[in-house]
Structure formats: C-alpha cells, structure tokens
Amino acid sequence: MSVNELSPGTSRLRLERIKAEDAAEYYKAGFEIADPEVAYYTGGGGTYDFATIEAYLKRIAEAEDRYDFFIRLDDGEAIGEIVLKDVDPDAGRASMRIALFSATRCGQGYGTEALRLLLDFAFGELGLHRVELEVYSYNERARRSYLKCGFKEEGRLREAVIADGRRYDLVLMGILRAEYEAGRA
Questions:
Q1: Quick check: 96 and 83 in contact, CB under 8 A?
Q2: Of 78, 96, 105, 160, which has the fewest Cβ atoms less than 10 A away?
Q3: Rg for the chain, CA atoms, rounded
Q4: What is the pTM of this model?
Q5: What is the pLDDT of residues 73-108, one digit of tens each?
Q6: Which CATH class is domain 13-184?
C-alpha cells in the first residue's frame, strides 16, 4: 500500500511517510544533536553519522513490511517519528515504535495524537487485528500514553534492560482492533 500522509484534518499534527531522500532532514531533526533524555527513554544513545542514517533510510524505503512516518506539526516541523513495522497481513498483526526528537515536545499530547493516527491507519486502512509494542518499565510517560490509547499490558521480560547501571523490565503491550474501536465509540 502506498501511503504518503496521514492527517485527520482537525489535528495539530500529521504523519508523513519518511522517504530515502529525507535523509538530511531526518538526520538534522533527530540525530545531529541527539537529545540525551529521549535516548534514555527509547534505549537509543548511540551516535549516528549522516552516511549511516542515509543508508538506513534507503533500506527501510525498500522494505514492504513497514511504514515509517515523520510526526509533523502544522507548520511542517518534524518533531518525531512513528513506525509500524513487522507488518504481517496474513496474521493481521504488526509492532510499532514512536520517538519524539526532543524532550521539550514531551508531555504535550503529540505522541498520543500520533499514536491514534497510526492506529487508525493500522486497523482501518491495513485491516490489522493487533498492534503490539515494547516499552521500558521506567518510561511511565510513554506507558500512560499507550494505556490512554487502549493498549493493555500483556507481559514483562523481567530485568531485561539495563539503564543507569540498574536493571528494568521490558513491558509488552498490545491492542486489538475491537478494543481500539470500542475506545473510540
């Protein structure tokens, strides 16, 4: 399916498909000067040069089992990314991830809005049955957003993550199409 933009027309943001030729913007927005708080909560923290980002975007642009989107404000500024990946139409499932590029954008509802747009796409356009994700147990802000959108905790990989020299759980969450539709009613 060729989808370039997701926008409800009433939101303060839209999702725009990331293309290989967006490498310069993607690098500048999220990786040239990476936000350490964002890296902590998403498990990032590596440094990436432009060539690595460019090669990554070329690779994902050719992948048929994923949809990578910029999260854009109305003025066009890219403030993050949201990805539906490992899309399996036969099983009707996919996993997702999201990251805002700057911690200054967190706590304003942008992630929740973007997630709802992505779920509309996953369940409506793609007809999926289930979307799942993983989140670190110490990332309460993200967990609250996922719960607000209807995700349920389905399990934990105990002490599977190390951050700041401590071990944390990796929380597995999922949402079914019927749950999402019931939450929108």
A1: yes
A2: 160
A3: 16
A4: 0.88
A5: 988 999 999 999 999 999 999 999 999 987 778 888
A6: alpha beta
